[in-house]
Amino acid sequence: MKKKILIVDDHPDIVLMLTDRLEALGYDTISAGNGKEGLERYEQDFPHLMLLDLEMPEMAGMEVLHQLAKILVKKNGEADSQAFGGGESLPLPVVVMTAHGTISKAVEAMKAGAYDFLTKPIELDHLALVLKKVLTREALGRQVAALRTEVESRYSQIVGNSSQVHLMVELAKRAAEADATVLLLGESGTGKELFARSIHQWSDRREMPFSIINCVALTETLLENELFGHEKGAFTGADSLQKGKIEAADGGTVFLDEIGDMPLGLQAKLLRVLQDHEFPRVGGTRLVRVNIRVIAATNKDLKRAVKEKTFREDLYFRLNVVNLILPPLRERPEDIIPLAEHFLARHMREMKKRKRRFSKSAIQTMRCYAWPGNIRELDNAIARAVVLGVDEEISSDLLGLGGGKDELDEVDNLPYHESLDRFGTRILEQAMRRSNWSQTKASELLGLQRTYLSRLLKQKGIQQGTEDS
Fold it and tell me: What is the pTM of this model?
């Protein structure tokens, strides 16, 4: 689609010259002979850019800028005006035109929101460059605004009707108002990254970067470089200075995922960042100061890790200023179907699939399933069903969960002891998952002696988890 440019000038010959040149460059043009008419054409035709003469009778260019600003406030479209990166107080980019002797007026116009200015007589090649620059930046800005909206809608919507979720959201919003470090605890897949992003979006740092660092995905050397960056010549292949993610997030939020798996050597360096807000890059001595907010997450028992000396006690206390323990999905069953409906709507939209709904059997299966992988597993199950399904109704078999009636059917013709053995294994596995693989907690849940549970786990070849002391 051609970009539409509104020319506002009281000199017909200048309007004609600009119209010819702009149309030759591939733009559509509309024109107005005075400021009042220019405002009317703006509201009728919604141009992408305005070329505005500052010296006009009746309504001068400065007054047009002031009226445009009022239109923006009236429409409450501040987000729109910020999209193109210049003229934050105006609803569209404006390039003003003025004579050589009135440059001061052009400067005044830019303070009022104009993006750039051109001096008369206008150099046509310079005009083409200015318009290309403005419109390119506007397009990129609108893409960024659209992506930001998409990210916020995807990651800042915490779904759930349970009292546990309502409490966690309330606590997270309180934490967001301060700059304290937040520690998110809970099993894998319970939504720790979602809460971290939400805390960032609810905070005063929302316009600044949100940087994610996975502490378990890289070796210690690579993780150190990822965190702190390096100086030129720090190691073979370091041909230039590189900022780390902590430095790149200056002013924003750093999310340290799987913090419980961070090597001890790096824990000491991270502690310094939390204490002093400064660090040296790899291979450097100069200290880099940063202003960041840290949110950390883990599915490990950090208190136990401190006792076992695999996690620094001083770092634990620095991270554990505010802690939120996110409940597993099995402990808030009333949230399963609302979450499933949320994921279904999102995946249908993203995959451009026609509207679908869950069958009664699918709803029952989801309600009865233990969800060892928590919300992440539910999300993946819904995505699978949307991809594979062809009917309007999503049946339980499309979820790929097994269990429920289908699993009972499998043992209908099995001998009693074999059936009992199969379901006994499943009961033990579910108890261990629910207890985060802690034998002590699982034995309490099942009402068994821990030594007996340990023997059963060994007999059935189930990962035995932690030998709690």
Answer: 0.61
